[in-house]
Specification:
Layout lengths: L10 H12 L15 H14 L9 H10 L19 H12 L13 H13 L10 H9 L9 H13 L7 E6 L9 E4 L2 E4 H18 L3 E4 L11 H10 L4 E8 L9 E6 L8 H18 L3 E7 L2 H4 L5 E8 L3 H7 L2 H18 L14 H9 L5
Parallel strand pairs: 1-4, 1-5, 5-8, 6-7
Antiparallel strand pairs: 2-3, 6-8
Length: about 375
């Protein structure tokens, strides 16, 4: 869908305004009922900021789905496992977060009431003496309100994710990674003309992805890319997440470059799944931190830190996922780096080192910048297991 923005009119704008009024983000008075005015744009920005979305003041497909999901509050409707279209909404996410706090395994709080959420709720119901039907109605809501945390001394999701990595071992051989070059097809991402040249985010992201594919395959990993160099059509993030799940990835790394009207904006940032209430993919958060620190150490780029987001690519994947924005194409400093193949090689080596460190037990981790990626390939060639 074309993003709805300031100056637009029509029934869709009226519905957006109604949802924002229902969330107490808009009083309904400024402008006409079907006008996307300045107050509406500001309310959309506040909503996006609160929900961990990209803050641009426009209602694209992802923001639209988030607005529709936000209309539901936990307890306003009965939740049950619907097939083939599961229930979605903020009430589902609130229930998932409550179950996670109590130690039940719902996976990520992805706002989708699927089979795993139903099983976790049925386990809770069984333990408190209710009918274990996986349906969240009034009786189950009363039981949830009465009980506090079940697990103390550590986040249960962190314990599960850390144990899964520990059991998989430090060797990269046979592990599955999905590399997602951002944009592509009719969506070039950030575009910067420079004389006779035209630099695009999609092309640079694919170049980084193909270099990373070669390095990780040489280290023994099974590598999949979500797109080729010139796809016929742009692939939305929801479809990319679904593809990664179907491929059975152990990790997902999405590669982008950024852009900003201010040419002084530069640096590298990494993103993982997380909500404003503190629920996060702890493995994704660790991977984002490792990738960021390795890139900064090996390239000297400005550290723009790690950030929790609820983007669909991070929320809907069933494996730890990170998005890395490698510099600003609109920055003369970063652009000079990005168009240098040697810089892209250093960036890729940094990501490979971060992936290897991800599988080291925390007590066996090594200093940032100390892994020689060439040694990983040499060890594999010699048949040596890490």
């Amino acid at each position: 869908m074309r993003p709805i923005r300031r100056g637009d009119h029509g029934p869709a704008v009226r519905e957006i305004r109604g949802l924002l009024v229902g969330l107490d983000l808009l009083d309904g008075q400024p402008g006409g009922a079907d006008e996307f005015d300045q107050a509406t744009e500001q309310a959309v920005r506040v909503f996006q900021q609160n929900r961990g979305l990209s803050v641009d003041g426009r209602v694209g497909a992802e923001t639209w789905r988030a607005l529709e999901a936000a209309r539901w509050r936990l307890g306003a409707r009965t939740l049950y496992h619907a097939v083939p279209e599961p229930l979605r909404g903020e009430d589902v996410r609130a229930l998932q977060e409550r179950l996670l706090e109590m130690g039940y395994n719902v996976g990520y709080a992805d706002s989708i009431y699927g089979a795993r959420s139903a099983r976790a709720l049925a386990q809770f119901q069984r333990e408190v003496g209710l009918v274990p039907d996986g349906t969240c109605g009034p009786q189950t809501m009363n039981a949830l309100r009465r009980l506090g945390r079940k697990v103390v001394g550590g986040r249960p999701q962190w314990l599960r994710e850390a144990d899964a990595f520990r059991q998989s071992g430090p060797d990269l051989v046979g592990k599955v990674i999905v590399i997602d070059p951002g944009h592509g097809g009719a969506d070039p991402g950030v575009v910067v003309p420079e004389g006779a040249l035209r630099w695009t985010e999609a092309d640079l992201a694919y170049d980084l992805a193909s270099r990373l594919e070669g390095r990780l395959a040489a280290a023994g990993m099974r590598v999949h890319l979500t797109r080729g160099p010139a796809p016929a059509a742009a692939l939305p993030d929801m479809a990319r997440a679904q593809l990664a799940n179907e491929l059975g990835g152990d990790l997902l790394i999405s590669l982008h470059v950024d852009g900003h009207p201010n040419p002084d904006a530069d640096g590298v940032a990494a993103y993982h799944y997380g909500t404003g209430s503190g629920v996060t993919s702890t493995a994704g958060e660790r991977l984002a931190g490792l990738v960021l620190r390795e890139i900064v150490a090996r390239t000297g780029m400005r550290d723009c830190h790690t950030h929790a987001k609820t983007w669909e690519l991070l929320r809907l994947t069933r494996m730890p996922a990170v998005r890395v924005d490698v510099g600003y194409l609109t920055s003369p400093l970063d652009r000079a780096r990005l168009i240098d193949p040697r810089f892209r090689d250093r960036t890729v080596d940094a990501i490979v080192a971060a992936v290897q460190r991800m599988y080291f037990p925390v007590e066996r981790d090594v200093p940032t910048g100390s892994i020689d990626v060439r040694e990983l390939r040499a060890a594999l060639a010699a048949g040596v297991v890490t």
